[in-house]
Write a structure and sequence with these properties.
Blueprint: E1 3-10, E2 13-20, H1 25-29, H2 36-67, H3 72-100, H4 115-126, H5 130-139, E3 150-151, H6 154-167, H7 169-173, E4 175-179, E5 183-189, E6 212-218, E7 220-229, H8 230-234, H9 240-262, E8 277-279, E9 288-292, H10 303-313, H11 316-319, E10 323-326, H12 328-334, E11 346-347, E12 357-358, E13 361-365, E14 376-382, H13 384-387, E15 388-393, E16 397-401, E17 408-421, E18 427-432
Parallel strand pairs: 2-7, 4-15, 8-9, 9-18, 10-13
Antiparallel strand pairs: 1-2, 3-16, 5-6, 7-17, 10-14, 11-12, 12-13, 14-18, 15-17, 16-17
Helix pairs in contact: 2-3, 4-5, 6-9
Length: about 425
Amino acid sequence: MTIISAKASANNKQLETKVLHANDTETKTVETKATGNEVANAFEDFMRAFESYKETNDERLAQVEQRIDADVLTTQKMDRISSAMDDQKRKLDQLMIKTARPVLGEKSPLLTDNEHKTAFNAYIRRGEELGLRQLEQKAMSQSSDPDGGYLVPDELDQQIGQRLADLSPIRSIASVRQVTGSVLKKPFSQNGMAVGWVGETDARPQTTNAQLVELQFPTMELYAMPAATSSLLEDSAIDIDTWIMSEIEAAFAEQEGAAFVTGDGVNKPSGFLNAPQIDDTSWSWGNLGYIATGTDAGFGDDPSDRLIDAIYALKSGYRQNAKFVMNRQTQGIIRQFKDADGNYMWQPPAAPGQQAMLHGFPVVEAEDMPDIASDSMSIAFGDFERGYLVVDRQGVSVLRDPYSAKPYVLFYTTKRVGGGVQNYEALKLIKFGTA
C-alpha cells in the first residue's frame, strides 16, 4: 500500500495531507476488526509482562537494601521489561480502537441512506454540487457554500465525534458541549447558588448575591486535507463517508489532544496547563492549585505521600469522579513505587478496555503531558468532567479541490473546536520542584 504523508504548519494550524491510491482499495476493503482472541491475547501478554516487571523490581529493591545500589544488569532488565510493557499496552490500545472502527467498504449502521448523504456522495466522488445546493435552498441555510465547503451528513458528523472521543484522551473525560455560534459564553458562580432554610410560613429573607463570572470559550478552526486519486473515488465499493472519517480522525484527535493539554489559546483551545498556577495553600479562583513534590525533577523520598497529598487537596465532591492524567514516561516511573504496606501503588487494568489504577483512581494516558523535569507539571488530578470544557461547533465541512495537486483530489476538511478550564476547583497539579 502506498500512502504519502506530509505535514505543514501555518497560522498556528496543523495540516495533515494523506494520499490514497486506487491500488490501496483491496487492502482497505478487506480490513477487519480486531477479534476478541487478539484482544485477549494482547491483554494476557501485558499482564505477564507486568508480573515479570514486579519480580525484577522486587529483586532490584532487595539489591538496593543489601548493597546500597542496584545491580546494573537488574536495572537494565527492568528497563527492558518496562519498555516491553509500554509496547504491549500500546498494541492493546490499538486493538481496542480497531474493534470500534468501521471497516472500509462496510456500511456503518449510523450512516443511513438519505437525500443529504446521496448528494454529499455525488459531490465527493464527482464534484456535483447541485444536490447539496438544492438541499441548502430547501433548508434556507447559508452555513456553507462552494468556497467554504459543504457540511457532511449529520450521521457522519456524529460518527466523527464518537471516534474523536475514543482517540482523544482529554475529550473522553471532559465535558463536551455543542454550539451553533462561534463562542460559548458560560456564567459561573464562584461561591455557589444562594440558598437558605425556612419554615412553611416563615418570611423568605434575602440571600447573599452569588458572585458570577462569565467564562468565554471561542471555537477555533482545525483542519486536515486527505487526498485521493480519481480512480479511487470512482470505485463504488468504497464507502466514501467511512473513508473520509478514517483519514481525518487520527489527525484531528492528535492536534486537539495536544491543544487541550498545552494549547495557548491563540488560534487553538486553551489547555488546562496554560491556566495560571499557584501553590495550593494560596489557591484562589482563576488559578489551578499545585502540590510541590519538594524535590527538583523528582518525587522525593516518599512518592506515595505526594500522590496522596494531591488526592486530598481536592474537595471530596470532586474526588468521586477524579482521574490521574500523565504520559507513559511518568507512568513508567510510578510503576516502580510501593506504598507503606509494600503493595504496588500502580495496578494494571482489570480487563481489556479498562484503565490502570493508582491509589484507587483511574489513570488516563495523555502523551502531551510533559515528562518529569525541573519544575514540570507532569501529573494532573481531578474531575475533568467538571473542570474542563470542550466546545464543538456543529458541523464538519468538506471542500473538494481537484486543481491544486493534480492528479490528486484534495478534500479540505474543517471543524471548529474550543476548550478551556471551566472550574478551577476541580483540578490539581503535581509540580516536580521544591516550591
